[in-house]
Design goal:
Blueprint (H helix, E strand, L loop, with lengths): L4 H4 L10 H8 L2 E6 L4 E3 L8 E6 L1 E7 L5 E8 L3 E2 L1 H6 L6 E4 L3 E6 L1 H10 L1 H27 L2 H15 L11 H8 L3 H13 L3 E4 L2 E4 L2 H8 L1
Antiparallel strand pairs: 1-8, 2-7, 3-6, 3-8, 4-5, 4-7, 9-10
């Protein structure tokens, strides 16, 4: 299914493009649908395109040879992923899986690189996107290096709360998924949740976390 230029403009990557540039990108972009649990891309595969999540939630992750998973990012509606292989033509650096029914727009990497070479506006948008991605990686390294497990879990809960949309049912992270995001074991997450609950920041009932105090949780995340 083809994609309209105005639908693409909702992605930060394409928001500042001229109508003409946007029309050229739309011409090499298709719409794809995924069910919860569907693998969208696998790390190491070639020929990756640029993905824009129109609706749903996507987990970008790496898996070690021992089977340990590290979640790198959760991509919700309005954001892109798999930028690097779409731009350099190399293999996918990470895998991606739909965490709920997802609609994504996929732009051919080969065609996107051709447009970057021909159109300065698209090249400039690419620079901005890569700079933002680098900031995100620096923030991830900072979290894993300098924050305690309790602080990392508190930050993950805050981030999930801030990105949720009240009118739309959202996937609630399990303790295992929080552990994969925090770069730790599930048992450590359970301990951190108890500490946050004891501090009066959250309530954890039957595995469902409710934030009681944004201010207190934010203080514990810093």
């Amino acid at each position: 299914m083809t994609v309209s230029p105005e639908a693409l403009r909702q992605a930060p990557f394409f928001a500042a493009l001229s109508a003409d540039d946007l029309a050229h990108v739309a011409a090499v972009t298709v719409e794809r649908h995924y069910e919860r649990g569907d693998i969208i891309i696998l790390a190491g595969q070639d020929g990756g395109g640029l993905y824009f999540v129109r609706q749903g939630l996507v987990k970008v992750y790496r898996t070690s040879e021992e089977g340990k998973e590290q979640t790198l990012r959760l991509i919700d509606a309005g954001n892109t992923f798999n930028d690097v292989p779409a731009l350099d033509g190399g293999p996918n650096p990470a895998s991606a899986m739909a965490m709920e029914p997802t609609v994504a727009y996929v732009t051919s990497g080969l065609q996107l690189r051709r447009l970057i070479a021909e159109r300065p506006g698209i090249a400039l948008a690419t620079v901005h996107t890569m700079a933002e991605a680098l900031r995100g990686l620096v923030a991830l390294v900072e979290d894993l290096s300098f924050r305690s497990v309790r602080a990392r879990v508190a930050k993950i809960l805050l981030d999930q709360e801030q990105t949720s949309v009240a009118a739309t049912p959202r996937h609630r992270l399990t303790q295992q998924e929080i552990a994969a995001l925090a770069g730790t074991a599930r048992e450590m997450v359970g301990r951190a949740l108890k500490e946050l609950e004891g501090a009066g920041a959250i309530r954890n009932e039957h595995g469902r976390v409710t934030i009681l105090s944004d201010e207190r949780l934010r203080a514990l995340a810093s």
